[in-house]
């Protein structure tokens, strides 16, 4: 297995239109995450990366939505995703639309997202499936330098393992868009062979276990009950 962190730097596409059939990918991803966006509440939604900035999130009840990337047209905050300029536990939800696909340090990116998310904060992340038609195209030397074949592709199991280490609870994960050149992605194939979908998405929530002892509960745990007098004692008259 190749290491997740590599010294090479990646240049993320500025628009979905730069990807072949990119608008189909974007529309399909929006359809997949729309029900989950409706469940999110809070004050701040962070959309990390240029592709995330173009995702329609109007169905989300969070009104303050900020686009963050190192450069781009629809960016409000210019920053390195590996060093987000936000206080810890200040963001209610994060969207990573194929951000890890062009990240040199996916672990560092997820750790930074974990740092800025509030307890029980939401995370939506999407990427390309290595076991798909796009994954097969990545094996062809003539296409390795072309978008999207120059991106990094990780399996769902590997990404969920990363999230488990950060104590995220995965609520939903799936593959979709089996045929990249088809607007519907191939409904029949997506129904019966979803594992071959070119796109994959994960919806998770940050869980925090209380590690600080509660003094009152600790005191009650140490309190011993007095034995009942004569409850089990037998007395014989001489």
UniProtKB/TrEMBL annotation:
InterPro entries: Methyltransf_11, SAM-dependent_MTases_sf. Pfam families: Methyltransf_11 (PF08241). Gene3D superfamilies: Vaccinia Virus protein VP39. SUPFAM superfamilies: S-adenosyl-L-methionine-dependent methyltransferases (SSF53335). GO terms for molecular function: S-adenosylmethionine-dependent methyltransferase activity. Residues 70-125 form the Methyltransferase type domain. This is Methyltransferase type 11 domain-containing protein. It comes from Atlantibacter hermannii NBRC 105704.
């Amino acid at each position: 297995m190749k290491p997740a962190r590599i010294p090479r730097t990646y240049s993320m596409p500025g628009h979905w239109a730069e990807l072949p059939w990119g608008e189909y990918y974007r529309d399909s991803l929006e359809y997949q995450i729309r029900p989950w966006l409706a469940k999110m509440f809070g004050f701040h939604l962070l959309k990390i990366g240029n592709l995330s900035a173009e995702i329609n999130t109007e169905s989300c009840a969070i009104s303050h939505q900020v686009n963050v990337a190192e450069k781009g047209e629809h960016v409000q905050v210019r920053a390195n995703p590996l060093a987000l300029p936000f206080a810890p536990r200040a963001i209610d939800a994060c969207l990573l639309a194929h951000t890890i696909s062009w990240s040199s340090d996916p672990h560092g990116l997820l750790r930074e997202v974990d740092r800025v998310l509030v307890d029980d904060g939401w995370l939506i992340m999407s990427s390309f499936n290595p076991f798909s038609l796009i994954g097969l195209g990545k094996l062809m030397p003539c296409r390795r330098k072309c978008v999207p074949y120059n991106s990094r592709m990780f399996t769902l199991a590997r990404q969920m393992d990363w999230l488990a280490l950060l104590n995220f609870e995965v609520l939903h994960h799936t593959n979709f868009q089996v045929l990249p050149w088809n607007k519907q992605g191939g409904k029949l194939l997506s129904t019966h062979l979803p594992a071959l979908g070119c796109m994959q998405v994960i919806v998770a929530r940050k869980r925090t276990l209380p590690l600080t002892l509660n003094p009152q509960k600790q005191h009650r745990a140490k309190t011993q009950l007095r034995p009942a007098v004569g409850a089990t004692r037998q007395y014989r008259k001489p």
